[in-house]
Amino acid sequence: MKHIVTVQDAVTAFADFIEPTSAELNAIEWELPVILADVDLIDAQIKAMDRMPNEVDAQRIRRARRRLLAARRDLTNTPASVRQHAGHGSFLPEVGA
Fold first, then answer.
1. Which of 50, 61, 76, 81 is the most buried (most CB within 10 A)?
2. Nearest-angstrom CA–CA distance, 97 and 90
3. Which of 38, 41, 46, 43 is nearest to 91 (CA)?
4. What angle separates helix 32-47 from helix 55-76, to the nearest 10 degrees?
5. Are 69 and 33 in contact (CB under 8 A)?
């Protein structure tokens, strides 16, 4: 009979070293407007999911989609020198994705 053992100690033994770097934290802070706009879009889509979407739901989704696209545009149009100075390493998918 084979015994199943946990590898929990091996995984959590290095937990102190798995903290995000300051560059990763700066990138997340830099992209926060896009992240929040994406959450708003998902929230609007969820609200319209449990019933037949009415005009208010459709307007809420369109508005959230426009805010997301505007936030992505603003982030994309930021000069490279500013992004490099902020330690920005974008984790965003392409706009068409």
1. 61
2. 15
3. 38
4. 160
5. no
